[in-house]
Amino acid sequence: MGFLQRLSLLATIAMLVAAPARAEVAASQATDWPFDVTTLRAPDGSITAKFVSFGATMTELWVRDRAGDARDVVLGYDDNTKLLTDPAHPVFNPIVGRYANRIKNGTFSIPITKDPQPDAPNVYHIPTNDHDGQDTLHGGIYGWDRRNWTVLARTDTSVTYHHLDAADEGFLGDVEATVTHSVENGGTLRTSVHATATEKTPIMLTQHIYWNLDAFQGADDVLAHQLHVDASRVVAVDGDAIPTGDLIDVGGTPFDFRETQKIGARWNDTVDLCGGGCQGYDNCWIYDHSEQARPGVSLWSDLSGIRLDVTTDNPAVQVYTGYWLDTPRKVVHGGPDVNYTKWSAVAIEQEGYIDAINTPEWGVDQIYYPGKDYNWESVYKFSTVP
Ligand SMILES: *[C@@H]1O[C@H](CO)[C@@H](O)[C@H](O)[C@H]1NC(C)=O
Ligand SMILES: *[C@@H]1O[C@H](CO)[C@@H](O)[C@H](O)[C@H]1NC(C)=O
Ligand SMILES: *[C@@H]1O[C@H](CO)[C@@H](O)[C@H](O)[C@H]1NC(C)=O
Ligand SMILES: *[C@@H]1O[C@H](CO)[C@@H](O)[C@H](O)[C@H]1NC(C)=O
Question: Is ligand 1 within 6 A of the CB of residue 105?
Answer without folding.
Answer: yes
